[in-house]
Design brief:
Number of helices: 4
Strand order of the largest sheet: 1-6-5-2
Structural class: alpha+beta
Distance between the termini: 55 Å
Shape: flat
Amino acid sequence: PETTPDLAALPEPAVPSSTKEALSSPHSAFWKQAMDAEMESMEANGVWELTELPLDATAVGGRWVYALKRDKGGKVEKFKARWVAKGYTQRDGIDYNETYAPVLHLNSFRTFLTIAAREDLELRQGDFKTAFLTARLVETVYMDQPTGYETRGEGGKKLVAHLLKAIYGLKQSPPRVCEPFSFLLHHHRSG
């Protein structure tokens, strides 16, 4: 089994701007682990199924985006990698129809907290690490497979990812992520 090098023995990491840069850096083992973790998360959430690209369809491109998570002292805590869609290549009215997603303004949030405190209401907070990867898409979207994780079909045919769930970078992802929460808020009845 491959061992991960001691982070303290390596130079200060820089955030790579490409997969080639990430995998050729002294920290390549850490970036590869982050990419593997992202792929495991996507597989666990059933984000796509591999298929041949239909003749009348186009695939949205994708790219790896890298980040470092640091603790309060500035020490690297975690290497992060996300496979994101190049949503800027999507065309309005063809690849997507809706991009609006509600956003809570800070003043509205403060008002909400004030009312909750005054009424002695119980508040719950949640952090959804993979919120985008759990939202179902209603549109048919095809995307290139993640660089470094490509699988070929029968006879070596190129396959693409038929997206079943939203993914970071798609124009239509934010409204799909908000739909379940909107539904719960509109249909919740206290008993």
